[in-house]
Amino acid sequence: MTARSRKCRSVFLTMLLVCSLVAMAGPLAGSASAIQTAGNTSVLTAGPNWYGQEFTVDVTQGSGGEFTAQSGDTVYLLEVDEGTDSVNRTARVLTVNSSGYINLETEELETDGRQAYALNDDNELNSGAVNFTLEPQTLDLEWERDSIATDSESVALETVESNRGAGEYNVTIRADGFDYEQLRALFVHSGTDLTEVTDRSHLPLEKLGFDPDDGDGLDDMRSAGYITLNLSTSTNFRQDGEIIANFSNLEANETLPSDGEYQFDIAVTDATTEDTAAITIGGAEADFEKPLYTRAAGDVAAFTVDLGSTDQTWVQLRDRNSEFVDVLYVEDDDGDGRVTFYANTRLMGTDHSELSGISEGDAEVVYHSNDTVQSYIHHETIPSVSGTKVGDAKFYDAETANSSNEVTFSQYTQAVNGATPTNQLSSPLATTTYELVADRRGRFTVDDGEAAVDRPLGETELDLVQPTVRESNTYVAPEKEADSQRSIDELEANLTSRDAAAIGDRLVFRFNTTGIAGALAAIDYAQNRHSIDTGLSEGYGVDVFAELAIDSEGTDWEGEGVNFTLLGENPLNGPRDRLALEDGENQDAYFLLDQQTAEGDPGTLYAVVDTGSTAYDGSITDDEQYDAALSYIAGGRFKFSGQGPQGGKGGDATDPTFPYYDSVITENVTERRTVSFESTTLTFDAVDDGTVALEPTRNARVSGDTNLAPGTSVTLGVRLAPPSDALPDEDPSFLAQREITVNADGTFNATFDLSDRTVGEAATVRVERGQTTVGSSDAEFANVDAVQGPYFETDLDVPPSAQRNETVRITGTVTNTGEEAGTADVTITATGTNPVRGIFDLDTGESRRVNHSVRMEQTAIDVRFESQDTSQQSTVEYEDPTAPATPTPTQTPTSTSATAVDGPQSTPPPADAGGGGFPWLLGGVGAAVTLTGAALLVIRWL
Predict the structure, then answer these.
(1) CA-CA distance, 245 to 303, in Å (whole number)?
(2) What distance in Å separates the CA atoms of residue 341 and residue 313, rounded to the nearest whole number?
(3) What are 226-278's pLDDT values in tens digits?
(4) Burial category of 879 from C-beta neighbours within 10 Å (exposed 0-12, middle 13-18, buried 19 and up)
(5) How far apart are CA 333 and CA 682, in angstroms?
(6) Backbone dihedral angles phi then psi of residue 12, each to the nearest 5 degrees
(7) Which end of the chain has fewer CB within 10 Å, C or N?
(8) Pairing mode, if any, of strands 506-513 and 604-610?
């Protein structure tokens, strides 16, 4: 479009030239020119002037050295080289008419850009010449969006680029498929500040091919489908460069065009400049991404709605019996065509301002979006405000939406369920199905006593299912602060299933549980001002979880009936010890939550505890044992205290009961796990009478096992002298050290080049985690009867996840790390496939690969790669692109000892593995005009 506007090649534009002629009184609206009088001469000084403008210049009032001309005289228009002040050529020869004027039409002047000109009575430059410039106007207009609904909103035709001041020109517009009435309904109405140019002296009649002398005028232009807009009086255009089009006005005037793409051709009326802006017009759309959303009651639901050709819609949310109803307004703020919003099902429909730390205006604790989402209950009713966008919704107590049936929202809810907006619920949203129906214009009616929408666009359902507590596991993870990994995927990659934790490691409890995300989100918002979706991706601090479930007695959430405890062994006489997680900070204890995504797919809660934290020094000791329990109390039917959102059994907040258990559930639902704590242990291999034997060879091996969490990074070092000799770390007696990782089975190993040592030398082997020594032993360099045989180490490479029908490529690498050549016998096994085997003769340090591929189905693939000495295993999780499931933690790669396989090689060694426009105008160019000199120049604007 920009290229077309700059070339100004349209036939339409050449003809569509508002001949802006300034009479003695000065220019009309849209002119950038002005007349300035000095003595008996007039000089045009307020440029620039633009190619396409037509001037009528009075040349009979010159004096002094400036030229004058009389009727019948010849005046020359000269092109001037501004750099040399020389004449390039004579552009035009003009004759003064009987009134003493010359008519200067500029649309046919040739130019590639800004050009200097001179008017003179001689065909040369001299002191009597009057100089000025012409400049081509550039124009690039685009619609604010590519598509628009015909009946719901306005959209701006925006100036992307122009070198001329906004409001200093007018435009004429046409579009194939639109007649004049439609164009007027679109651009000129009470919803905009645009007006139409109707004075025939200011219309481009001749340029459009009409004959004013024959009586042609405004009606003929309108009949041909043209409208001229006065932009000089438009505040929107002067300030923002926007022409506002109201497509809803088309429906109001019953002039809707057919759905489709339309080319709007826009031409500047006094310059040879045009542009074309295309937009797709169609009915409003609002399609939800899924036909069904499943969440446990009490959790946070997320919805995505594709808005298509609109950027806003209203959504009615109700249960099937209309016992609860609310209306939402959603708007696409970032222009990506969709809105994702979050709803806290624990608080929906309640008076959120009753929560401690939450005010009436804190509706974000219930509904949140990075775009716009507003609830009639939470944004309009509870704050008792007006002027919200959701407040534009209209309600009617009949099937038809007309003014005689219009009621308030409170009257509307009373019509469908007999309650005011915040009194519809006596307890949190029940476990049932809720309908979300988008409406075209925000009009809501009552149909046979039930809430309905006037013009439905799209719909979905929210299925709130029964919250549960099911299954629990304990894991350990390498030493780090509890909140160091705030992603469940990142945490799970470091977990190893164990019922005992070495003090200093992280202890992780996992519960399959649902129904508490909404309460946690509300507490997190009140305490930390985090949005209700933040905790779902980043987790919750110990202060948030403690408010709900750990130290809940006497707190605002006491009545919720959720308890998490860590209790020591039950003594015969005396109370059980309690591990008080709330005594720590987030680095000491942290909680991650993964919500349920479908029925039968439980949510997951991870409680991460740093067992080395000083906050728990008095509670976490060697051989200490604790029972971890998460309980939902079944104390009876939960009811709100007042309008909610908190309460308890029968409305008594001091009598806890879980909100989603009815009166028939009488037994608490509890999941327990027992865990014990151990001091760090570490033993070395090749120990003879308490001394580790070291070989003075190039590949001297040091190995052992520990109860540290697999994946823990430690430093294994060898130095001279026994450990009783205190030497600084920089002492040259350190022979070698290497950072290694504890294997999944608790073993560790490393090789060092100790070939320069001699038999009989004393040494020390030592393992450190951070700055702490976790194990050491005396060592001695000793002869070995035989050279170390081959030792085949394995390395497995698989992707962490794959989608259905995707080919999963598996690579196993085996390396001979021993001191002599040998034969490696390796096998890759993967779920659902035959094993792939490889037998290789490998020299010391030599490696070979084995490749395998598996097609992913809708289940995880367990992969194992093993040699006669070591093995590794991993799991490729199934990745559902629409509803990612929580992967089950797997052990990190393992290294285990196996007996060598004798016999011939049974398998040979494998290889490494437009339309529209204005066709009736001639193309042209525009330019700025600056006139200097002493000749009298008078511009008359048509």
Answers:
(1) 31
(2) 13
(3) 999 998 888 888 888 888 888 777 766 656 677 788 999 998 888 888 899 99
(4) middle
(5) 59
(6) -60, -45
(7) N
(8) antiparallel
88-136 residue pLDDT tens: 889 999 999 998 888 888 888 877 788 888 888 888 888 778 888 888 9
pLDDT at position 13 over 80: no
d(CA 256, CA 588): 64
Structure tokens at 635: 């104390």
CA-CA-CA-CA torsion sign (401, 406, 410, 415): negative
Percent of the chain with pLDDT over 70: 84
Token pair, residue 376, equals 């009639």
DSSP secondary structure string for all residues of 336-383: SSEEEEEEETTTTTS-GGGSTT--TT-GGGTEEESSEEEEIIIIIITT
Which option is the CATH number for 792-878: 2.40.30.10, 3.40.605.10, 2.60.40.10, 3.20.20.60? 2.60.40.10
Residue type, 322: S
pLDDT digits (tens, 9 = 90+) for 835-876: 999 999 999 999 999 999 999 998 999 999 999 988 999 999
Exposed/middle/buried for 678, CB within 10 Å: 0-12, 13-18, 19+? middle
3-state SS, 594-638, equals ECCCECCECCEEEEEEECCCHHHCCCCCCCCEEEEEEEECCCCCE
Identity of residue 341 = F
The Cα 394–Cα 390 span in angstroms is 9
Q: Give me 309's structure tokens.
A: 């050709």
Candidates 425, 433, 408, 452; CA nearest to 316 is 452
CA 10 to CA 919: how far, in whole Å?
Answer: 7
* CATH homologous superfamily for the domain 684-781: Immunoglobulins (2.60.40.10)
Residues 202, 195 contacting (CB under 8 angstroms)? no
Under DSSP, the state recorded for 144 is: S
Q: Of how many residues is the chain composed?
A: 942
| Equal fold, 684-781 vs 792-878 | yes
- Residue matched to tokens 């020390």: 764
Output 559 or 935, whichever has higher pLDDT: 559
How far apart are alpha carbons 572 and 887 in whole angstroms? Answer: 42
SS (H, E, C) 197-249: CCCHHHCCCHHHCCCHHHCCCHHHHHHCCCEEEEHHHCHHHHHHCEEEEECHH
Radius of gyration, alpha carbons of the chain: 41
The per-residue pLDDT for range 287-341, each reduced to its tens digit, is 899 999 999 999 999 999 998 767 889 999 999 889 999 999 999 999 888 999 9
Strand-strand pairing, 871-878 and 801-802: parallel
- Please state, in angstroms and rounded to a whole number, the distance separating the CA atoms of residues 351 and 893: 52
